[in-house]
């Protein structure tokens, strides 16, 4: 997991796909996009190598937020508006699977709680396959957030 702000994103040197994702997040026009799926880059075979899921929602009680994980894509979670916390913990074999991994949707869920890490506008989290995470947590009161989850094919 990496936590930082967009001001420092170019210092990370995570490769060209991540650089393109951070450039997309820095474009002010993208903050105005409606909620939904937005393709940023596709491979010649049609595979979406980079896309953003823009979401708007009210944060929830941490107990209502499940730990999720991904295998094919890394998440760059970025807040345009609002405040939330993301629960995080390492994805380890001792965590009970509550919803098996779906290769089609690139998501699975495990039991447990993560450490709540505050998340503010302009900040981002990069979450890799070894990072179980539970986004959308209130801090402490529920607020409305607008965020982008940029999915980067690994």
UniProtKB/TrEMBL annotation:
GO cellular component: cytosol
Domain of life assignment: Bacteria
One Pfam family named in its UniProt record: DUF386
SUPFAM superfamilies the UniProt entry points to: Clavaminate synthase-like
NCBIfam families for this protein: YhcH/YjgK/YiaL family protein
Name listed for the protein in its UniProt record: YhcH/YjgK/YiaL family protein
């Amino acid at each position: 997991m990496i936590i930082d702000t967009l001001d420092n994103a170019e210092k990370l040197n995570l490769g060209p796909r991540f650089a393109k994702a951070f450039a997309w997040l820095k474009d002010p026009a993208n903050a105005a996009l409606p909620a939904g799926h937005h393709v940023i880059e596709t491979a010649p075979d049609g595979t979406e190598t980079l896309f953003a899921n823009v979401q708007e929602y009210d944060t929830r009680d941490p107990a209502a937020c499940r730990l999720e994980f991904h295998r094919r894509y890394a998440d760059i979670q970025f807040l345009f508006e609002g405040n939330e916390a993301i629960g995080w913990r390492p994805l380890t074999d001792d965590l009970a699977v509550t919803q098996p991994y779906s290769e089609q949707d690139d998501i699975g869920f495990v039991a447990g709680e993560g450490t709540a890490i505050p998340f503010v506008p302009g900040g981002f989290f990069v979450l890799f396959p070894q990072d179980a995470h539970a986004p959308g947590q209130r801090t402490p009161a529920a607020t409305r957030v607008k965020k982008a989850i940029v999915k980067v094919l690994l």
